[in-house]
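Chain X:
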Amino acid sequence: MKEFEILIAPTINKSIDSTYGLGDNIITEGETPWDAAHRYRQKTGYKGFTEPNIINNLYNNVENSLIAKSIEEPYLQNWPSPPEIENHVIWHLLDDFSQLRKAKERVWKKVQKDRCIKIAHIDTGYQPNHPALPKFMTKGISFLKDENEGSAIDVTKDSFQEQDGHGTATMSILAGNKVSINSNGITFNDELGAIPFAEIIPIRICDTVALIRSQNFVKALDYAIDIGCEVVTMSMAGVPTNQWANAINRAYEAGVTVVTAAGNSWNKEAKRLLPKKTLYPARWKRVISATGVTANHLPYVFKAQISAKTEGGETMQGNFGPKKVMDNSIAAYTPNTVWATMNQSNDNIFYRLDGGGTSSATPQIAAAAALWLSFHRDKIESNLDPAKKWKKVEAVKYALFNSADKSYEKHKKYYGQGILKANDALNIFPDWKILRKSKKAKCSLNGILDLLGIMLRLKGNQNESEEEMYATEILQLLHTEPDLHNYLKIDEDEKWSQKRKREIIHKLMNSEKASSSLKRRLNSIVEDSGNLNLSNAHALLIGVGGHDIPVTVDDAKDLGELLKDSQKAAYRKENVKILVNEDANRFNVLASLENIVEKVKSEDDATVIVYYSGHGGIVNNGSSNEYYLLTHGANSLNRENTMVSGSEFSDLINRINAKKLLVMLDCCHASGMIEDKPLLKLKSPDLDMVNSNVELLKRLNTGGGKVFITSCDDDEQSVILPGAKNSLFTAVVLEALAGYASDGDPYVRMVDLLYHVLREVPRRVKEYKHVQRPIVNRVKNLSSDYFLCRSSEVTKTFSGINKELLTELLKTYNLNNSHKEIDINQVSQSSNEDKSGEEIKNEISAIRKEVSKNQIGKSISLLLKLAKSHFDSYFNGIIMLSGDYNDLLSKKQKGIIDDSSYRIWLAQIKDRILTYLDMFENENDNESFDDF
């Protein structure tokens, strides 16, 4: 084994003003760096996140030829040369390009103050005595291990490599002093940098751009926060770490604008194997990513140029993409920018004109951010809430992005938001209220979480840190393994297909760099998904039948046939019990449930499905209410002996010791077809019973691996669409279990079924002007490797699960949001929020949406809150409306009124809500809330 340095994350997040915000450094052993991290946790019992202090060495294998400069020619000949103009040395700052010179002059005229803003420059440091170094530059600090936090002086290696003196060159583009040049064919007498009056803090984190120690960047960023820098520029990129993500989040919350390079790639020789997509930290939404545009206003990408020349010159180009990453990207001009160097000082050469890479673009964008902040200082301070400093970053992004040149038809693909126009940006100051927080930086992709089976796992899981470690390692391998670079084209939120998952698992398992710990984790995934234990999968399917609900028999039988079919779900026939008509009596239902309890009592990997299709509801037994499921032969005068009580049913369900348990209730079918509305309407089978699907779900325990779902909410009908053989809910369940929602996967997962049912049932019934919303229990610890059955061969009609939509569906259609009384005491006090008329209109629209979904209680709660803050004259009336709603719910639950009466009164309450919304809307249109 080898020794590696690992980083132990603090168990409690440190505040922004703490020293560096780092945990402990430990030296420990392992086969690979990540094995050492896992081994430490196993030996010590430490439960927190641990990662190796990696060295970013993406370019190490091509270090000797990294970004070599051409000696014969002043410009890189394979890229467009700047125009032949008087100020060609700073062509990138002029009006036809970035507008930085005009913006600089305009800001200086307004502020007339040196050191008006602090900018942290994170790089290789600076070469002393270069004439172009910023006028107001501090000695800086070095976080290199052997330099003991001394100054940020860069020790040159006397080579022509860009990596030596990289900091000097990029710092000069940012804030270079006034210089006089008359040598090597270059004549110039002016300020070189875009914001020469700023205070520049050099922070040295490496001596070559090819090798960045992970922890050094974290220390540098925290140092910049501590000393009050408002902008950070880093013309480097690399492999992400969890500590990088945390540092970016701290900077964002502190209101620090971070601009970093998207990265570079090559199209020749060994260097062509490097990643071509945006690298980190630029890939995170809370960072501004610097992409490149050339002097002819086309992308800094060979294939995007009119004539792509790849011979006789440098083969480097800028990284870009994937699509969603470009939302936080903007382009600045490169290559063939001025490049300050001391590497050829013996030949009296201190400047070249062949600077390139996104390295040159980054300081231009950072300068534009600093100019904007300086220009709008007073407005920012008057708007800034100390608790929401991140809005300062979003304001910078808003101004730069909305002023960018978007004339190039493919700007979104190559540039992101467009080409930097610094002077135009000064004309924009956003409405502070519209600024929204960017997505938190994290060291993972949803595709990786899905691959590992933790896509929907909730926070607080005991294995959370270990799973984050696996996710981080995979993301790093995507950057360092050439065979895996292609997966960096995938957007952060994009779902990975099953084919893609199989491919990536195979490549990771065969990688020499992947840890043994990760390989064992991946192997367990292969075993789980490839060997669903169908011999230990059981199903109990109940269709009560009867004259008023005959369709329940077909529902149960069809579900049973699908599960038993060897070419479909492939459950063993003896493990699928179907009870319909006379067999669906009280005795058989209870005995069959007892039988499943016994069968799976000692099994570790059992999968159980319990399905009931019939009537269910609450009966008022004097001082208490009891829930009953009707079974065949049910008698309202002898319920205890002819029906199954909710207590009996829930007790047996909760005794089922299954790793994976799914209970589905398709209750409250009706008897007759109404001609004007071709839907089955509810007809209560027992005049003393108040229909309630949700009450039984409340009796069932929730926990890992248990999912309970009912076909509709209490005040809705479970329907059959015209011409359908099965009830709507069951028809959609059959589709899901057959594989229509599984994206070609050979197995159906719980997330597939939930996504299909929660999305399709409300959508399909909507065109009949009816509401039916399946309700689920509080889903806990639900993982994407929760398999239910095998898929049959079906035509692929599904494009993958949208995780955000599924999360929203689970929030909307669950017990917590099902019908419940409104707690009027929880209505917040008047907030006097400063909302625009448009914001109020959006709130009104959101409430209307809740009404359309039959979320009456939630609608009234939102209505109360809006009235309290902006329409107080209506508040008392809505309090009365809340009381009426609570009273109606209570009467229904106690059996005082039947379902038909309940719906009539509920419809009147809905109309009253809509009337209030109409009045709010009219008042909002007639009065400007922008002047509050």
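Chain Y:
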Amino acid sequence: MTASLLFEKGSIGSLELDHRILMGSMHLGIESDRKQLNQLKAFYSERAKGGAALIITGGVAVLPEGGGDHMFCLTEQDHRAQLQELAEAVHQAGGKIALQLQHNGRYAKSSETGLAPVAPSPVMSKVTKETPIELSVKGIQEIRDAFIEGAVFAKSAGFDAVEMMGSEGYLLNQFLSPLTNQRSDDYGGDFNKRMRLPLEIVSGIRERAGSDYPVIYRMSGDDYMEGSTTREETVEFAKQLVKYGVDALNVGVGWHESRIPTVAATVPAGAFSHVVSDIRQAVDVPVIGANRIHTPEVAEDMLKQQLMDFVAPARPWLADESFALKAKIGDREGLNMCISCNQECLDHTLGNPLLPVGCLVNPRTGHEWEWSLKSKDKNQKERKIAVVGGGVAGLAAAKAAAEQGGQVTLFEAKDQLGGHFLLASQIPGKDKFLETIRFYRTSLERLNVIVKLSTKPTIEELKVYDKVIIATGVKPYIPEHLKGANLPHVANYSDILSGKIPLGKRIAIVGGGGIGCDLAHLIAQANDMPADVKNFFGEYGVKVESPRRVDVTIISRSKRAAKGVGPTTRWVLLSELRRLGVNILKGFECHEITEEGVWVQSDEDRQFIEADQVIICAGQTADRELFDILKEHVPTEVIGGSFDASELNAAKAIRQAYDLVYNSQVEATNN
């Protein structure tokens, strides 16, 4: 990037950094398992090689009751040893790393720790459904000492800095808020007393670790909880942290209980920069921003506007391990962008059960160590491989096969690449899907893959290849037993998303899964004026309403609408549907479609829903006709929706494509 502020040198206390792009803290779901240590080291080492100026680890518990499933805990000697190895691995890769210290407080789960959660006051957590035990003064002091000792350990283990987790509603944040701190002793009551614990920790670290050891505090810029810490108190807290010796402030936003989304794709880029800026204007140490800073250009703009001094994105480093390096050399076309889907990252670490973190758009994430053991098959260069289908499964297969040296040709029946992923990019918040298609298109060009659009290859054409990979995807499923499904006002989701059929005004969507709810979200947006239009008239005091109103009803057989959508995005989607006036009938089955609407039935009720258009979102079937014919003539594999149409799962399809190519390569090498 030409004359970029992102790539000016900076410093956090005594720590000099080559540029301004850090890697924010992420829990990977494999910490504390020594069998996974090589993978953990490989993950962080690749990000160090990929240009992260400073890597911040996932939260490390200072005491057992403040930890959780697959979290390091500093009371375990082996965990300390693993962390030291991790720091050494990052340094060997040429990187710098900070240890984040954490105590979950009332967010800790007794089912994971085996211990009762503790907090400033016994206020039940909506996240865990548990009421924590109120800490005694002695208990508070033990936590204080554990944080201080944790920082001393970080320094002795070779970590370049330490960060305290005081945001997102965890323990130190709980002490600050009157919602969770209802004490009347020296650690609660007025704001000075609610600040006492974190300030004592910072003071103790300075005393024990020395004045020159870099200390970062991740503070909450806004809890987005009614009745919580005020903006004035938050700014004052920032000033006090600096007064007590903090070298940098990393500003987070929101609690897990907040009803304002902070990580969903629907949140505008840089939406919380004003919160970071308020803190920056009040202090004279570097201030770091993180939330919804997903692209180099947004990050650059944040620095140009002097809203922050450093950026610390997290998920973008899952999508591309060379995020900063590619930004530095200006390879925007080659950058694999995070699409904020949360499917393989936050949905894994916040789900039940916890699963290791991966990335939908980057199948290498979470498997770096495994992949490092695989060598390229020299025989692949002689192999001619055809991939039929240009959705994400086919794109991933073509890329992987070309990376292994194959001579690859990709056939796509339509005039654009992307398949269902391209259709889905129209859904609100999913426009970034186009970035993934762009990344694959660029990758295939660089790998000299021949791409033939608007082409359906014949059996004879495919017979000349050494191997054919079928990725023809899925077709919408129309229930044969559904009376009236062939009426002219009935469509399927693909017809609507591809623009083949215009929309009606009273729409019934049959199917309340992810596709049905996403489609309802798209359609119901007609009830909302575009933000730029609304803002324009708002400046002149004129209230405007959408010129087109649609009535949308979702008919869901399940009593849980959007059942297949991940936990970190489902509530956001359902909130949007409610805001837009979408009616959701849960526990109802569509029995008949008529010219006037649909008859639906639940266990207790039968209703008629008036509709001038009915859209069926009842699942999909595998399109594997070509595979069934071709497999008798040439070695043929099938992947993606063609292999399993039970759900549209791009992460699974991409991973399957890479596994197919790389595992085949390993088998060929071993034979």
